[in-house]
Amino acid sequence: MTGEWTVPRVKSGIPGFDELVNGGFPKGTTVLVTGPTGSGKTTFAVQFVYKGVELYDEPGVIVTLEERAVDLRREMRAFGWDIEKYEKEGKIAIIDGVSAVVGLPSEEQYVLEGNLNTEDFLRYIYRVVKAIDAKRLVIDSIPSIAFRLKKEEEIREVLLQLNTILLEMGVTSILTTEAPEPSRGKISRYGIEEYIARGVVLLDFIEREVELKRYLLIRKMRETKHSMKKYPFEIMSDGLVVYPSGEIY
């Protein structure tokens, strides 16, 4: 007798979201979170790691390539998230990928040097993931990888390498990227990120009664059933919340 295969799930830690993906992200998948500036991509990604530790005891790594680790910690304290507490416990690691690029000294435990090539960049992330036995990984953001490695013209090759090593590590990963004009179908900076990732979540704005409202759309998620509707979400005092019953058509 053959039993039905059940896909192992990783809870997102985002209220309302897991209902839209049949109980959580497929374990070990790579998800692209895309959207215009200010849509909540970094909050979504960091919440995934922070709540992974707080609620499910799953260590996580955050690679921050757009702002210094110290600034990221400060911003996330606004949600009541004490990232530093879990860093001291060895359950969260923040890799500072900004300081060296802008020529600032860094006192962080994990720092990317300013002149790493693609292979060294990926190898360093791999080492940190293994060092804390991470189950979750965030890289914020893909355009900053291209800028940092001066490989923008070879971004496809870099992303293919990145996706391969993420799958090899077995972590469940979120990558963020910019969506310049999602209303016109351009949902990523380079137009190829969505083809490499196994899942794509779009965060965007829609105008309702002379006011901008946030919405979320799952464009793709392999290995699971998922909704294809637009759902409202808000960034509250304690993080991001999705409203599965409040569909935007």
From TrEMBL:
<keyword id="KW-0547">Nucleotide-binding</keyword>
<dbReference type="InterPro" id="IPR027417">
    <property type="entry name" value="P-loop_NTPase"/>
</dbReference>
<dbReference type="InterPro" id="IPR014774">
    <property type="entry name" value="KaiC-like_dom"/>
</dbReference>
<dbReference type="GO" id="GO:0005524">
    <property type="term" value="F:ATP binding"/>
</dbReference>
<feature type="domain" description="KaiC">
    <location>
        <begin position="8"/>
        <end position="249"/>
    </location>
</feature>
<protein>
    <submittedName>
        <fullName>ATPase, RecA superfamily</fullName>
    </submittedName>
</protein>
<dbReference type="InterPro" id="IPR010624">
    <property type="entry name" value="KaiC_dom"/>
</dbReference>
<dbReference type="Pfam" id="PF06745">
    <property type="entry name" value="ATPase"/>
</dbReference>
<keyword id="KW-0067">ATP-binding</keyword>
